[in-house]
Amino acid sequence: MLEKIQNVLRTHLDNETLEITAATTFEELDLDSLDLVELVMSLEDEFGIGIEVEETLVTVGDLVRLIEGLL
Amino acid sequence: MTSPICDLLGISVPVLQGGMAWISDWSLASAVSNAGGLGTVAAGNAPADYVRDQIQKTREHTNKPFAVNVMLMSPFAEEIAELLIAERVPVVVTGAGNPERFMRRWLDAGIKVVPVVPSTGVARRVEKLGATAVIAEGGESGGHIGELTTMALVPQVCDAVSIPVIAAGGIADGRGFAAALMLGAVGVQVGTRFLVANECTVHPNYKQRILAAKDIDTVSTGRRLGHPVRSLKNAFSRGFAALEYEPNTTLEQLEEYGVGALRLAAVEGDRERGCFMSGQVAGLVKREQSAAEIIADLISGAEAALKGASSWVK
Ligand SMILES: Cc1cc2nc3c(=O)[nH]c(=O)nc-3n(C[C@H](O)[C@H](O)[C@H](O)COP(=O)(O)O)c2cc1C
Questions:
Q1: How close B123 comes to chain A (CA, Å)?
Q2: Residue B161 in domain
Q3: Minimum Cα–Cα distance from B104: chain A residue
Q4: Measured distance CA(B168)–CA(B221) in Å, rounded
Q5: A18-31 average pLDDT score
Q6: What homologous superfamily does CATH list for A2-70?
Q7: Which residues, judged by CB distance below 6 Å to any ligand atom, belong to the binding site of ligand 1?
Q8: Which of B88, B90, B95, B117 is disulfide-compatible with B123, CB 3.0–4.6 A?
Q9: Does B100 touch chain A (CB under 8 A)?
Q10: What's the pTM value of the predicted model, to 2 decimals?
Q11: Inter-residue contact B239 to B249 (CB < 8 Å)
C-alpha cells in the first residue's frame, strides 16, 4: 500500500525519485489541505473506495492506515 | 433578472448575503430574504443555543428561505450540525473547513448544502458528495480567504463542476455582479456591502470604517497560520503583521493574538484592538441603505451593465 501511495505522490508531485517513507509528513512534501483533497480524490479513483478527508492526516503513514482500514 | 439558482433555492433574485460571524444575525438575514435574496445567519463560534434563537427570530421576521452559515472549525460544529437538522433549516452554507463529515446527514434531512470552496479540487469533491451548489470565493473577500482571486477561480470552478456556481469576493455593485455572470456564475454572494445595511446590527464604528475605506485600506494577515484573514488596516492588523514576520513567534502566540478580535470590532467597535474584517471592495461602499435598496441597486446595475455589454460586439 505504501508503495502505491508513494507512486501516486511521485506522479502528483512530478518527481519520480522523491524519497517518501511512512513518516514523511505532507508538510515536508509541501502539500497543504487543498492538495490533500486532490490527492485523496485520485486515490479514491485508484482503489474504487470513498475516503473521508480527515483533518488529522499528518504523515503518509496516516493515509496508508486510513486506506487499509477501508479496503 | 433571474437565474437557475433562484428556483433551486426558492429565492427571487440571485443574490446571497454572505454569513458574517458576530455580525449577520436574524435582523440582516430576514431583511435580505424579505427583499428576495438569500439572507444568512452566521453561526461563527457561537454555541447551539444562540443559533437556535437566531433561527427562531429569523422565522418570526420572514417566511422566505434563508441560510445558516456554519464555521466548520467551530468547537460547536457538531451540535450545530444536529440543530440545523432538527430545525429543518432550508439552506446550509459551510465555510472554513471540510464539510464532509456532515454533508450526508444534512442532505438526507432535505437541507440544501452550499459549501464555500477555494479551489477546483474542493469543488469537485463536494459535488461528488451531493452539494446543491458551490460558492467560489476569491481572496478579495473580507474574512478568511483563499489564495486564488475571484477572476481566476470562478471560471475554473465553473469548468470543473456541473452544479451551479455562485461567485463571491470583490462584488459590491452591478458591474461586479455582471462580471461574475460573464465568468460563468449563476449568482453572487456579497459580504462587505451588506455590512453597512440599515438592518445590519454591527457596531456603528465598524460601518463608519467601511464607509471611509479606500481601495488600499485592507490587508491580509495570518498566512503563516494557514488561514489568512483580510481586514482593514489598524493597530490590530499592524500588530499582527509585526508578530507574524518576527521569526521567534510561535504559531500558538500568533493564534492567541487574534482571539476575540472580530468580536471586539463588531460588538464593541474597538478601533485599536478590533479586527475589522473587510473585502477589498470597501472602497466602493459609500452609503448606508436598506438591504432591499442594496439588492435593487445590485440588480439594476447588473442589468444595465449586461445590456450595455453588447455594444462591444461588432
Ligand atoms: C466581517 C466579515 C465576516 C465574515 N464571516 C464569515 C463567516 O463567519 N463564515 C463564512 O463562511 N464567511 C464569512 N465571511 C465571508 C462572507 O460570507 C462573503 O463570502 C465575503 O464577504 C464575500 O466577499 P466581499 O466581502 O468582497 O463581498 C465574512 C466576511 C466579512 C466581511
A1: 10
A2: yes
A3: A52
A4: 20
A5: 90
A6: ACP-like (1.10.1200.10)
A7: B 18-21, 23, 42, 44, 69, 71, 95, 116, 137, 140-143, 168-171, 189-192, 277-279, 281
A8: B117
A9: yes
A10: 0.93
A11: no
